[in-house]
Design a protein that fits this description.
The chain has about 450 residues and is α+β, with helices and mostly antiparallel strands. About 50% of the residues lie in helices and about 20% in strands.
C-alpha cells in the first residue's frame, strides 16, 4: 500500500506554470509548459555558445589573417628569389652565348682568311703548274692517302664554314647549302647546354678540324711545288751534263742568259729591299727559277742537232779515217752515211737557220743549217732541196730528198755535225739525243 502510494507520488503529473500578463484592464494568461522552458533554455544556451564562438573567432581572426599574410609574403619572396635566380642564370647563359658567338665569329674570320689565302695560293700555283706542264714536267699531284682534288677540299671547307654559321644561327649568302641545319641562337636551359655541349666547345673542335685540313692542303701544295722544283732541277742538270759532254758550252748563269736574244729579257730599275716572303712564296719563286733554267736549257737542247736525220736507216759509214772509195787510200770521213733510196725524206735534226741550200763541190746538192752556239749540220748528196737560204726551221722539218749527187758511189745521206767549223762525230749527238728523250 505504501508502494502504490509512492508510485503515485513519483508519477504524479507536474503542474504547468501560468504566466499572467496584465495591461490596464486587459489580463492575459500564458501557460508555460515544461518543454517550452526547456526549449527556451536550449535556445539561450545555443545563442550564448554562438556568441562566445563568434567573439572568439573575431578575437583570433586577426592572428589567423596575419599568419596567412605572412605565409603568402614568404611564398612571394620565395617566388621572387627563384625568379631572380632564374634571371641571373639566364643572364649568365646569354652572356656566355654572346661570348661564344664572338669567339666563333673570330674563328670563322680566321678560317675565311686562311681560305682566301689558300685560294690565292691556288691561283698562283695554277699558273706555275700550267707553265711546268707546258715545259713537259709531270704536274700530277703526289699520290698520298689524303690526296684529293683541291676543288673538293675547298667545297668541304665551305661546308665547314656553313657549319660554323649554323652554330651562330645565320646563313652565308654565297655559301652552298650545308648539311647541318641552322640552330636558333636563343637562350637555352643550362641542362641543355650540359647535355648538348657548349657552342664554343663544338666550334673549337670544328675549327681544329678545319685548321688541320687547311694545313694539310698547304703541306701538300708545298710538297708538290718542291717535287716539281726538284724535277726541274734534275732535268736541267741532266740536260746540262749531256750538252757539256757533247762539247756545247753552257752560259755561266743559265737563268740570266738568254738563248735567242741577249736583250729579250732585259730588266732594270732602282734597287729596293726585298719584301718579306712566306715559305709558299719562296717555294713558288724557287720553282719559277728552276723552270726558267729548265726552259732555257731545254730550248738550247731543242735547237741543237740531237735528232736522227734518217730514223730506222742503217749507217753504212762512220765518222773518222776510212779507205776512200775513189782513191783507195786512207782518208778522213767528216760525217756518217745513212743508206737511203733516192727521193727519201730528209728532216732537220735541230732548229736553226738555213745558211746554204744548193751545190757544194763534193757534197753535191747540200743543205747546211746553223743551230747557234757555233753548231752547224750538213746534209749532202741530196737529189732535191725543199728549203732556201734564210729559212728558219724547227727540228723535224722536211728540208730535202736524198740522192747520190756529188762525190758519191750510190744513193745515201751524208750527215755532218760541225762545231765552230770543225767536224765532230755525229754519233755523240745521236747518243745524246737518245738520253735527252727522258728529260725533254
Amino acid at each position: 500500500m505504501s508502494g502504490v502510494r509512492a508510485n503515485r507520488i513519483f508519477g504524479k503529473r507536474k503542474e504547468s506554470h501560468v504566466l499572467i500578463l496584465a495591461s490596464g484592464e486587459r489580463v492575459r494568461h500564458m501557460t508555460i509548459r515544461p518543454w517550452m522552458a526547456a526549449l527556451a533554455v536550449s535556445l539561450f544556451g545555443l545563442f550564448t555558445i554562438g556568441y562566445l564562438t563568434a567573439t572568439a573567432y573575431l578575437v583570433l581572426r586577426d592572428d589567423l589573417i596575419g599568419a596567412s599574410m605572412a605565409r603568402q609574403a614568404r611564398m612571394q619572396h620565395e617566388y621572387e628569389d627563384r625568379i631572380a635566380a632564374l634571371r641571373a642564370q639566364l643572364d649568365r647563359i646569354t652572356s656566355r652565348q654572346l661570348l661564344d658567338q664572338q669567339v666563333v665569329e673570330e674563328k670563322v674570320e680566321k678560317l675565311m682568311e686562311q681560305q682566301m689565302a689558300l685560294t690565292d695560293r691556288q691561283g698562283k700555283l695554277g699558273s706555275v703548274l700550267e707553265r711546268a706542264e707546258n715545259s713537259g714536267l709531270d704536274t700530277s699531284a703526289p699520290d698520298t692517302a689524303t690526296d684529293q682534288p683541291l676543288d673538293s677540299q675547298v667545297d668541304g671547307d665551305r661546308a665547314a664554314l656553313d657549319s660554323f654559321d649554323a652554330l651562330l644561327g645565320k646563313t652565308r649568302p654565297d655559301s652552298r647549302k650545308a648539311k647541318t641545319r641552322a640552330l636558333a641562337f636563343a637562350p637555352v636551359d643550362s641542362a641543355d647546354l650540359v647535355r648538348d655541349g657548349n657552342i664554343a666547345d663544338r666550334a673549337d673542335k670544328l675549327f681544329s678540324s678545319m685548321t688541320l685540313s687547311l694545313k694539310g692542303i698547304e703541306r701538300e701544295q708545298l710538297a708538290h711545288i718542291r717535287s716539281l722544283t726538284a724535277d726541274a732541277e734534275d732535268r736541267t742538270r741532266g740536260i746540262g751534263e749531256i750538252l757539256t759532254k757533247t762539247g756545247v758550252k753552257l752560259p755561266a748563269k743559265l737563268a740570266d742568259a738568254a738563248v735567242e736574244d741577249d736583250d729579250a729579257n732585259a730588266v732594270g730599275g732602282p734597287y729596293l729591299a726585298p719584301e718579306a716572303a712566306t715559305e709558299f712564296e719562296n717555294s713558288i719563286s724557287n720553282l719559277d727559277l728552276a723552270l726558267d733554267k729548265f726552259e732555257r736549257v731545254k730550248t738550247l737542247a731543242l735547237k741543237l742537232p740531237f735528232a736522227n736525220p734518217a730514223p730506222n736507216r742503217k749507217i753504212t759509214s762512220l765518222f773518222g779515217n776510212r779507205i776512200d772509195p775513189f782513191f783507195g787510200k786512207l782518208a778522213m770521213h767528216a760525217g756518217i752515211d745513212f743508206r737511203q733510196k733516192t727521193g727519201s725524206k730528209v728532216r732537220a735534226t735541230g732548229a736553226g737557220t738555213v745558211v746554204h741550200a744548193g751545190l757544194a763541190g763534193g757534197y753535191g746538192i747540200m743543205v747546211e743549217i746553223d743551230h747557234g752556239n757555233g753548231i752547224t749540220t750538213r746534209y749532202g748528196h741530196l737529189s732535191k732541196v725543199l728549203v732556201k737560204e734564210g729559212d728558219v726551221i724547227a727540228a723535224g722539218d722536211l728540208i730535202a730528198l736524198s740522192g747520190s749527187t756529188g762525190r758519191s758511189t750510190g744513193p745515201h745521206l751524208h750527215y755532218e755535225v760541225r762545231r765552230n767549223g770543225v767536224a765532230v762525230d755525229p754519233i755523240r749527238f745521236l747518243n745524246a739525243g737518245l738520253k735527252l728523250t727522258s728529260y725533254l
